[in-house]
Design goal:
Blueprint (H helix, E strand, L loop, with lengths): L6 H10 L6 E5 L1 H8 L8 E4 L2 E5 L10 E5 L4
Parallel strand pairs: 1-3
Antiparallel strand pairs: 1-4, 2-3
Length: 74
């Protein structure tokens, strides 16, 4: 079963997993493009609830999957 990834889905995912600013979310490029398609400019990332969302540039993420990346601060 395919899931639709939209802003509401991402917000629910963030809340359900109690994520904070120490992570980034990575989406399949097609899912990412669908989310930013409504904007006037082509975006490389965007932010929801203080968490950056980026597209997978290495084809590691399946479509309709959300991957959580830990961000390490020096």
């Amino acid at each position: 079963m395919k899931k639709n990834i939209d802003l509401a889905t991402i917000k629910k995912f963030i809340l359900a997993n109690a994520l904070s600013e120490n992570v980034m979310l990575m989406l399949h490029p097609s899912n990412f493009e669908k989310l930013v398609a409504k904007g006037a400019k082509k975006a490389k990332s965007f932010c929801i609830s203080g968490i950056n969302i980026i597209a997978d540039e290495n084809n590691e993420i399946s479509e309709y999957e959300i991957d959580v990346l830990e961000v390490k601060f020096n």
